[in-house]
Write a structure and sequence with these properties.
By secondary structure, the chain is α/β, with parallel strands linked by helices. It has two domains: 11-92, Chemotaxis receptor methyltransferase CheR, N-terminal domain (Chemotaxis Receptor Methyltransferase Cher, domain 1); 103-285, Rossmann fold (3-Layer(aba) Sandwich), CATH 3.40.50. Helices cover 40% and strands 19% of the residues. It has ten helices and twelve strands. The strands form three sheets. The protein has a seven-stranded mixed β-sheet with strand order 8-4-3-9-10-12-11. It is globular and about 60 Å long. It starts with 10 loop residues before the first strand and ends in a 5-residue tail after the last strand.
Length: 290
Amino acid sequence: MKMLQPETPALYEQHGKLAINDNDFELIRNWIYEVAGITLTPAKKNLVTGRLGKRVQALGYSSFGDYIRPIIAARAGDSAAIQERQFAINALTTNETYFFREPAHFDFLKDVIIPQWQGGEARRIWSAASSSGEEAYTAAMVLTMSLPQVRWDIVGTDINSEVVAHAGKALYPLSRAEKIPSQYLKAYCLKGIGKMEGLFQITPKVKSRVSFQTANITEEQTTLGRFDLIMLRNVLIYFDKASKQRVVNNLINRLKPGGYLFIGHAESLNGLNYDLKMIKTAIYQRPLEK
């Protein structure tokens, strides 16, 4: 981590927007790396300003440093600072997803994994960094249609509490349905009417099999149990090598022998240590125990 230099006065841009100085950016940059493993390059200074600036001003702080220091120093029992800490995490984390994103994964789930699960034990899937829930509900639709006789459940987690709350509602704008294949759209999506016009909701049959909670994948999640499939797609690109290794270790510890790991097709585990076999691009399997 870089050493901080003495503070400089807060600056305001001509239009009144609070500007962030280099020291305060480094303070926030170091903090979000420590708590979430996210690396903010200097090019992200405008992103930090845009996502936190209004909040800093609304709370009456004259600089980003004055805002973030109480958050960094927050301890258990300091409810206001803890709550603001979560707000800052929510603001600085990226959440981009949609239904049936990278469909090759869901084809592999349907054509390869599900036949292995037929007639067997109850199965569990973890949608890590689940954002607003589209990935988890996509997997749930596939399992509902193709694995009707086997018990299963899906757990979605994200460090951002706002998207976790949104995911639990299973309610989305109709525009988000455009990539859902027609057979799933007709079977598992309810079009809103009246006050709900312009929205659609996942049917209770699917929604009831999926749960969401706030969790940090850079920390060991022992309370979640173990899983037959873990999906962590298009997330590792935000981490440096050390954070990637920590996250992958945490995931492998939650993966059952013989279980699968999906990562994004633009991602790689190259350069990391892991006890997984690459099945095909972006799909790995943990070996069975001898």
